[in-house]
Specification:
binds magnesium ion, coiled coil, binds adenosine-5'-diphosphate, ATP-binding, 366 residues, alpha/beta, 10-stranded mixed sheet, microtubule binding, ATP binding, motor protein
Length: 366
């Protein structure tokens, strides 16, 4: 499928009727945690309306009274999700359209960005009781494929990669994508993959992940349409980035600070790519880190791209939240060339070939 995808991708890219579009940016506010409440924190984020997020800084009631006004800033996004938003609502608003596109041979990417503990993994993977975008996307794919099974043959493959210390590691099935036959076991599979992620205790959250994790779902579809064999390949990439916070100032020789430097380096590389893309520069420094190499297709290429910025409501995270909203605001300005046509290949069956069904079966065996 890899080679096929490449070949078909090239066909698609040549014929692409590429329309200029931009990255869609969403913000998800998580509920205040018990720990934050116990630390006496206040909410510094207000979802004013569907698109309007208001961030305000006041350390204490007395500060607020002394300043006599709230120093704050409004940010506008494609949508902002208050802490009451369900997983299904987030999926529906951000990813379900991309899943439909993938079935038609278009690529799509969703990535979560935010500080450790802000809700990235909850949004992407979720829990057994409240599965997240990755699980809901695969379930949705399967139910859509089942509805369409009469018009062709679909195959769904998964691969899950981790970028840690600027090296790439396979979390599911080293060396090859996993052919998924049904969606029942997918949560278990993804949770196992997530457990394989490199984790280290940090200041904010004991089990926070120090790595970037990506799940790629490749859907290949084949059918006979008016004497031709049509092949479409769509790729959905779902990305759970490492925490965006600054590395702890620790001894330069410790493992933690090396990791911190690497996480910072890849997120720094990401921000310089975002800057270059926003400024319309010819050269975008994707090669500066593994993470940006991985995101190259999504940020600069022909892809429908969604960014979800995860934030905590607590004023204890004010600085991080401000940074995240700043980058999310900038990401809105990134133009991508969204494919309006699919990665599609049409093979004309020769007239002499009478038994077309036989040929399709042959191809399916490949
Ligand atoms: P991150 O991956 O960004 O470090 P997590 O997704 O692990 O953060 O979230 C930290 C904690 O907050 C987890 O215990 C998670 O279950 C909880 N959490 C995050 N977002 C939500 C939400 N929208 N609703 C309920 N709990 C949430
Ligand atoms: Mg996480």
């Amino acid at each position: 499928v890899g080679a096929r995808l490449k070949a078909v991708g090239e066909v698609g890219a040549c014929n692409a009727d590429a329309a200029d579009s931009r990255i869609l940016v969403f913000v998800r506010l998580r509920p205040m945690s018990k720990k934050e409440r116990e630390a006496g924190s206040r909410s510094c984020v207000k979802i004013v309306s569907k698109k309007d997020v208001y961030l305000t800084e006041f350390a204490s009631e007395s500060d607020y009274l002394r300043l006599k006004r709230v120093r704050g800033r409004h940010f506008w996004f494609d949508a902002s999700f208050p802490d009451s938003t369900t997983q299904a609502e987030v999926y529906g608003a951000t990813t379900s359209d991309l899943v439909e596109g993938v079935l038609q041979g278009r690529n799509g990417t969703v990535f979560c960005y935010g500080a450790t503990g802000a809700g990235k993994t909850y949004t992407m993977l979720g829990t057994m009781e409240s599965p997240g975008v990755m699980v809901l996307a695969i379930k949705d794919l399967f139910s859509k494929v089942r509805q369409r099974s009469h018009d062709g043959n679909h195959s769904i493959q998964l691969s899950s990669l981790e970028v840690y210390n600027d090296t790439v590691r396979d979390l599911l099935s080293p060396g090859r994508p996993l052919l998924l036959r049904e969606d029942k076991q997918v949560m278990k599979l993804l949770q196992q993959g997530n457990q394989n992620r490199t984790t280290e205790p940090t200041r904010v959250n004991e089990t926070s992940s120090r790595s970037h994790a990506t799940l790629q779902v490749i859907v290949e579809y084949r059918s006979m349409e008016g004497g031709s064999i049509v092949t479409r390949v769509g790729k959905l990439s779902l990305i759970d980035l490492a925490g965006s916070e600054r590395a702890l100032a620790t001894d330069q020789r410790t493992q933690r600070s090396i990791e911190g430097a690497n996480i910072n380096r890849s997120l720094l590389a990401l921000s310089s790519c975002i800057n270059s893309l926003v400024e319309g520069k010819k050269h975008i420094p994707f090669r500066n880190s593994k993470l940006t190499q991985l995101l190259k297709d999504s940020l600069g290429g022909s892809c429908n791209t969604i960014m979800i910025a995860n934030i905590s409501p607590s004023n204890l995270s004010f600085g991080e939240t401000q940074t995240i909203l700043h980058w999310a605001d900038r990401a809105k300005k990134i133009k991508t060339k969204a494919l309006t046509t699919a990665n599609e290949e049409v093979l004309k069956v020769p007239d002499s070939e009478t038994d077309q069904t036989k040929l399709v079966l042959e191809l399916q065996k490949e």
